[in-house]
Structures are given as C-alpha cells and as structure tokens.
Amino acid sequence: MKVGIIIGDKRLEYMVMEEFKRRNIPFVLLNSYSADVNVIVSDAPQDFDAIIAQNPEVIARRVVSYLYGKKRFHKIVVGVDPGPKPGVAVVGDGLIVEEMQLSDVDLVKETIDGIYEGYEPEKFLIRVGNGDVVNRNRIVNFLVEEYTVEIVDERNTSNSITNRDAESAKTIAFSRGNIVKRKLNTIVRDGHLREIQRRSRIESRGMITISKSLARRVLLGEITMEEAINIARGHNEEG
Q1: Do 114 and 131 share a domain, yes or no?
Q2: Confidence of residue 11 (pLDDT cuts 50, 70, 90)
Q3: Same domain, yes or no, for 40 and 57?
Q4: Per 3-state DSSP, what percentage of the chain is helix, strand, and coil (rounded to 5)?
Q5: Which of 141, 169, 207, 215 could form a disulfide with 81, with the two C-beta atoms 3.0–4.6 Å apart?
C-alpha cells in the first residue's frame, strides 16, 4: 500500500510527509496521477479522485483506512482513560488504529474533535473509564452535548487495568458501557481545587497561582486551564 502526494504548498507538503513518517504510512511524491499508488492526497481539487484537505493530521487520518483496504471506517470508537494525563485509543471497525497520551485533560475535547473530523465515520462512540471520577466527569461534560458517550466500569473489564495510560484506553474502547444522556455533577473538594492550583503554577512556570474560584471553573469544565491562567494574569496586571 502506498500513498501519492500532490501538494502545491511546500510547507504543507513537508508537514504531511512528517505526519506520514510518524504514523509509518508509506508514500511517494508525484507531479501527476499515477496508477501505482492506492490513494492520492492533495491540497486542491484534481481531475481524478483524491483526498483533499489542508491539515496534515486530517490528511493522515483519512488515509489510515486505506491501509486496511477501506475507503472509510464505518464505526470509530474512542476509548479514554481519565486522569490528569488521559490515555486515548482509537478503534476503527474493531482495529486499533491510533493511541496516544495527552498532557492535560483540557486537550481531550480538541483531540476528539480532530479524530472525528479526520476519520469521518458513519458512527462515532466515545467510551470513558470510571477510574478517576473527577476527571471522568470533566471529560464527559466536555463531550456529551456533541457526541455519544458511554461510561465504562473498569472493574468489569476482562483484564484489570493498572497502568493509567493509552494501554488502559484500549481496554476501555473494547468494553461496553452505559450511555450518558446529560452533563454529570462534579463534587468539588478542597483537595481537588488545590491540585488544580498546583497545576496552574506548573503550567505558568511558577508565575501564576489561580484562585479557588477559577480552579472550580476549571474543574467543572467551564474554562480551560490556559484560560484560567490568562484571567488570573490579567487580574494581576490590573492590580
């Protein structure tokens, strides 16, 4: 299997090549149509069938299904292992096609949006583990109004989950859960707020400690950590 690249924008061409290398997708640069490749990607409409997109990750994800002999995956299931650094696994028609570890809970929504845009499946389901209740609820609340979300009881999985990483997310992705129909209530305790404040100091390189009221809003998913730090920084400058 090989992908042909016909991209006029040299910067985008380079970024696509780097993304293909990262994902081990074989490719060749072309100047025109070739029957020697399985699919062609481009940044502009062509006189032949081609994947057209402007984002390297979107282009790569639309190519992945061709590696498995499909033009598109019918169903994508995303498993999310909640925690301060969530693990994410993407399953396309029963095949593990992607896995990653995020550096922050605030990145989950953006990541899920990118997965959905890239794969364009007919069916899309997110399964979130229940191991970390606070971060689980934050993640569910980020997603439930736009996507179908299930909560998976990790105690009922066939293998016990001990490593809080993408490996756990794969187990979650293959486990049936209960559908969530609305946002979840999050119990806010002082310990949770102090942890959010601690992370704000780390992410601002010791410059900012957000207030408990801002930490509460971050915990409830109303704002991201970056937004909270910017608000706190603005207040400090005003003072």
Answers
A1: yes
A2: very high
A3: yes
A4: 40, 20, 40
A5: 169
pLDDT band, very low/low/confident/very high, at 238 (cuts 50, 70, 90): low
Angle between helices 225-238 and 212-219 (to 10 degrees): 160
Q: Taking all residues of the chain, what is their mean pLDDT, rounded to a whole number? A: 90
Do 117 and 48 lie in one domain? The reply is no
Confidence of residue 160 (pLDDT cuts 50, 70, 90): very low
Question: Do 89 and 123 have their domain in common?
Answer: yes
For tokens 């990750």, what's the residue?
Answer: 57
| Residue 79: pLDDT over 90 | yes
161 band by pLDDT with thresholds 50, 70 and 90 = very low
What global pTM score does this model have? Answer: 0.81
**All residues at 6 or more sequence positions from 179 whose CB lies less than 8 Å from its CB, including other chains:** 148, 149, 150
Residues 50 and 83 in one domain: no
Q: Which of 180, 204, 223 is the last residue of a domain?
A: 180
Tokens encoding 180: 């969530």
Question: What dihedral do alpha carbons 204, 207, 208, 209 form, nearest 10°?
Answer: 100
The parent domain of residue 213 ranges over 190-238
Angle in degrees, 0-180, between the axes of helices 108-119 and 133-143, rounded to the nearest 10: 50
227 falls within a domain: yes
Q: For residue 91, what are its two tokens?
A: 């399953």
